[in-house]
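Suppose a colleague, Dr. K., hands you the sequence of a protein chain of 154 amino acids and asks what its three-dimensional shape might be. Before reaching for any lab equipment, you can write down a predicted structure in token form. Begin with the sequence itself:
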Amino acid sequence: MQEVQHERDLGVEVSSSLKPSLQRTKAAAKAMQVLGIIKRNFVMNEDFRLLFNGYVKPHLEYCVQVWSPYLKKDRECLEKVQRRATKLVKGLKNKPYPERLALLHTSSLVKRRLRGDLIQVYRIMSGIDKVNMEHFIELEHGGGHDLRGHRFKV
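The predicted structure, expressed as tokens, is then:
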């Protein structure tokens, strides 16, 4: 068997170190390419969310459950794409990033990933996804303590 430094499987780059940096680099580069095409062909205004969510964000979030960026440099690289995209919207270029996000009714990519993780935990704990919960989540057993009306305390 031949040893390789990285392998591409189902569109996800996996390196021998299992760090997501290679995938992050390729995802950010592709998203920037698509953002450049949008910038050259459209005037960004109220269509921003439609264009960004439909064409750019899929590159940033493709299989993110598998390669979720945990290093700060990886998260910042992906967030930089969204920062640049929000600056393209008419009248928002000189506003701070959090204000641009609020005006566009969107959230940072880090918050979106956290929300997705929490939704997945809910789906596992409520039995929607048939996964053995004990492998991933440890529940606190009341031991006589009040858990405020529910039996789930992670």
